[in-house]
Recover the amino acids of this structure.
């Protein structure tokens, strides 16, 4: 009683429609992300009169006036370098503190564990404008004010909840039996962690590091209040950009987006790992 | 291996923590934030100062938080503060007395504002600006018959906007009602004084109701995207609006880019006069400044006639002292200068000062006017009810601040009354 005849027409049609919907959805999502970025670069690379004119251009005219003004603006390169320093330091700090916390949460039972988990998220419950004033007072007193390290500490605090929770679920996904096997074969706790758990968890840890990087890169308010001479690019530009002429807004927007795009592109395979897509 | 790692980390940390010693005076400003203005301030205005200046602009929020933090910590790096009159009021108790600076060239009225209600010179006037109207030359042909561009009335303005709307099929009046727009200044200093002769006292009077009704009529011919507009120069250049109201510094780009396409003219007059609002920015030295002498030298330098003219070119804010303008001033300065002169020199001129004595309630004061606008114009609530409602809020703020009336309202004993 096997039915080898092809499926009836309506079913085929439904499948075709489904496939069409799928690809249309994919195309829509891709355009959703790419079109604004495309226009950002088109306008950044066009002459100021073309930016404000109508109709808008589809292809850039490669007039570099806006970009040039922008690059000559005093302090842009310094601010870009500061941004990179702060973001990298934030990445290191949040992983150095977050990964052990995530490991402890997944492997050990200790009193106050649930409370601790809530506490970690609580750091995101207070808006930064509220925290910035007392933080700045304290930083000025301790000498951390206007330093890359001081700002990285604040950004690490913002990134920690994500680092802790992402690594927690990562370590929970690695069977404890693997570690136990390593112990029986002569490893101590640390060796077992480094030789067995870490290689398995590394892509995920990298993903949460990328997350920390992006959080730091995008943060404005703390950066604007806690640094003056050593501002990050975001703090340096965002305040000036929203009151600047349109062509410069585009040039600045492109400058803000570009480094983050390159960075994310470079580490994309780790990002996919975070969502459980195999590392191919 | 581990100790080497530790060493590297330590070295990195100490490298990151050390800052360059700051020999320059830090000029922390809430003005000249657009990057072209910042650039011009650094290269054309401050480069002539011998002591060395680091000019750092910031948004008003971070600006205030930062200086409050330094005052709270009792030490800081800011040498000179630059901001609008209203920004200084919450800081009055922590600003150094600047009476040692020779500012005799500045008009006494401005210097008195710099006292901030104390008997010490809390800030020295830096530069001034105001708000004017601007129009595309295309709009001029729709000007109602018999109307004089340099002496418009609100009725004529509405008729003009209506003519354009009818003839071109599109609402062409533009109003800076966006999040960064300065709409509250229009209501405080222009619309209400023009109809009521008052900013505060007559807030809920019949003539105020008339003013809002007139504005509702104007709104019919206003580009509905106005709730996104903040710098009207952009809409002038893009052609989204042909007839606009805004701060001179926020119109400058249009005049400088296409000088032949735009005209500037005074704000319209209402039954009570031609209300307009001069804006004053000042410079102050916080108590926590490390080198007060250098800071005061910088302020003296900023008052020199050449510096004041350079500041005008950089920021489109006008000098606070009498200067002879060179002939080659940018088109924006020429256009706005003529409009301002016509406005302040008009027979019916009615200057309305920035709020005085509100302290840190200034933001709430502005909010009352913005709320009134949103409720009446955007939410279409009945004018009378909204005015009664908002008058209560206004009264509460003035009572709490204990602020006596300022021009154009008649002086009062005790808090300014809201009738």
């Amino acid at each position: 009683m096997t039915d080898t005849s092809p499926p009836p027409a309506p079913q085929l049609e439904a499948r075709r429609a489904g496939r069409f919907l799928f690809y249309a959805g994919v195309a829509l999502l891709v355009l959703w992300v790419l079109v604004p970025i495309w226009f950002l670069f088109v306008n950044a690379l066009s002459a100021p009169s073309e930016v404000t004119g109508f109709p808008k251009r589809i292809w850039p005219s490669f007039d570099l006036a806006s970009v040039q003004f922008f690059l000559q603006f005093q302090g842009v390169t310094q601010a870009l370098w500061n941004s990179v320093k702060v973001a990298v330091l934030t990445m290191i700090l949040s992983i150095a503190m977050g990964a052990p916390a995530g490991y402890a949460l997944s492997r050990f039972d200790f009193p106050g564990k649930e409370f601790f988990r809530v506490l970690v998220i609580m750091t995101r419950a207070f808006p930064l404008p509220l925290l910035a004033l007392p933080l700045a007072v304290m930083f000025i007193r301790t000498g951390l004010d206007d330093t890359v390290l001081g700002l990285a500490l604040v950004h690490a605090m913002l990134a920690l909840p994500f680092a802790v929770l992402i690594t927690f679920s990562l370590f929970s996904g690695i069977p404890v039996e693997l570690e136990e096997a390593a112990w029986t074969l002569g490893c101590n706790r640390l060796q077992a962690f480094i030789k067995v758990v870490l290689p398995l968890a590394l892509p995920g840890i990298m993903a949460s590091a990328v997350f920390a990087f992006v959080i730091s890169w995008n943060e404005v308010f703390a950066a604007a209040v806690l640094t003056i001479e050593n501002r990050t690019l975001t703090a340096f530009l965002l305040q000036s950009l929203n009151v600047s002429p349109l062509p410069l807004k585009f040039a600045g927007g492109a400058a803000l987006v570009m480094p983050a795009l390159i960075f994310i592109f470079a580490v994309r395979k780790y990002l996919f790992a975070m969502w459980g897509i195999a590392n191919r | 291996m581990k100790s080497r790692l530790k060493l590297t980390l330590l070295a990195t940390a100490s490298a990151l923590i050390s800052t360059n010693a700051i020999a320059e005076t830090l000029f922390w400003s809430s003005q000249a934030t657009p990057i072209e203005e910042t650039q011009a301030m650094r290269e054309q205005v401050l480069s002539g100062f011998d002591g060395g200046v680091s000019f750092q602009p910031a948004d008003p929020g971070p600006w205030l938080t930062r200086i409050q933090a330094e005052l709270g910590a009792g030490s800081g790096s800011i040498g000179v503060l630059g901001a609008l009159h209203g920004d200084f009021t919450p800081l009055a108790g922590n600003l150094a007395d600047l009476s040692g600076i020779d500012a005799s060239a500045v008009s006494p009225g401005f210097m008195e504002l710099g006292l901030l209600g104390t008997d010490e010179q809390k800030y020295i006037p830096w530069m001034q600006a105001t708000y004017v109207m601007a129009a595309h030359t295309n709009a001029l042909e729709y000007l109602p018959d018999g109307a004089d561009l340099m002496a418009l009335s609100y009725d004529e303005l509405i008729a003009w906007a209506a003519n354009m709307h009818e003839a071109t099929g599109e609402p062409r009046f533009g109003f800076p009602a966006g999040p960064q727009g300065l709409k509250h200044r229009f209501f405080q200093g222009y619309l209400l004084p023009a109809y009521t002769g008052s900013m505060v006292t007559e807030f809920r009077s019949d003539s105020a109701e008339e003013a809002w009704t007139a504005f509702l009529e104007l709104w019919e011919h206003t580009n509905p995207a106005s709730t996104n507009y903040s710098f009207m120069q952009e809409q002038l250049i893009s052609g989204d609006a042909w007839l606009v109201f805004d701060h001179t510094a926020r119109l400058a780009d249009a005049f400088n880019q296409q000088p032949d396409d735009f005209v500037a003219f005074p704000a319209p007059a209402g039954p009570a006069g031609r209300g307009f609002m001069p804006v004053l920015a000042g410079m102050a030295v916080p108590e926590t400044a490390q080198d007060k002498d250098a800071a005061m030298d910088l302020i003296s330098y900023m008052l020199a006639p050449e510096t004041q003219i350079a500041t005008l070119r950089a920021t489109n804010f006008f000098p606070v002292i009498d200067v002879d303008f060179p002939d080659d001033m940018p088109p924006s300065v020429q256009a706005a200068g003529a409009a301002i002169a016509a406005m302040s020199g008009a027979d019916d001129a009615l200057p309305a000062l920035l709020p005085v004595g509100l302290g840190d309630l200034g933001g709430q004061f502005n909010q009352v006017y913005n709320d009134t606008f949103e409720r009446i114009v955007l939410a279409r609530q009945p004018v009378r009810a909204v005015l009664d409602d908002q008058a209560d809020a206004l009264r509460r703020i003035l009572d709490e601040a204990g602020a006596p009336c300022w021009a154009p309202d008649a002086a009062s004993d005790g808090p300014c009354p809201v009738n």
User: Anything to note?
Assistant: The first helix of chain B runs from residue 2 to 17. The two ends of chain B are 79 Å apart (CA to CA). Confidence is low (pLDDT under 50) at residues 17-22 of chain B. The interface with chain A takes residues 13, 16-20, 22, 26, 28, 33-36, 38-39, 42-43, 54, 56-59, 61-62, 65-66, 68-70, 72-73, 75-78, 180, 230-231, 233-234, 237-239, 253, 257 of chain B (CB under 8 Å).
